[in-house]
Amino acid sequence: MVAYHLDGTTFGRNGNEDNSGRARLHGAFGCTGYDRWAAIAAWDDEDLDLLAKVAGDDLARWCAGRSPLEAAEMLQGAGVEAVPVQDFADCHGDPQLAHRGHFVRLTHPFLGPGDYERNGVRLSGSDGGYRRSAPTLG
After folding, report:
1. Which domain holds residue 52?
2. 25: part of which helix (H) or strand (E)?
């Protein structure tokens, strides 16, 4: 919105690519396991050099032999921005989300007990959660 307001620039859908043109490398790379990924960004030549020291010349091949967490931790340790792309099961085991009380356990009248996600944004005076489960139809 800011770019459009400043100079009329509009962007289309671009998947994992960087619209700003600032990143030298920006994307999600396949790792071991079914549909498992690590998101990696290198913003300048220095980042690319750090990345090459860890992963070599073929980042996709390097990632394919590692879990998303292993790849992310190795790259972070070298100073490269990287995170594992989490699925819903990963989110339930994430210590940071647990610490923040991200999931609230509620009981639905027909579906029984289940976990509900709180709003990721916390505003003062509101916990961003739910007091009851989803309503029933009718």
Report:
1. 21-85
2. strand 25-30
Q: Say whether 41 sits in a helix, a strand or coil.
A: strand
pTM given for the model: 0.70
Condensed to tens digits (0 to 9), the pLDDT of residues 12-54 reads 665 555 556 678 899 999 999 999 999 999 999 999 999 999 9
Same domain, 91 and 67: no
Does 114 lie in the same domain as 75?
A: no
Q: Which string of b and e fits 16-43 if b means at least 16 CB within 10 Å?
A: eeeeeeebeebbebebeeeebbbbbbbb
Q: How far is CA 46 from the centre of its chain?
A: 23
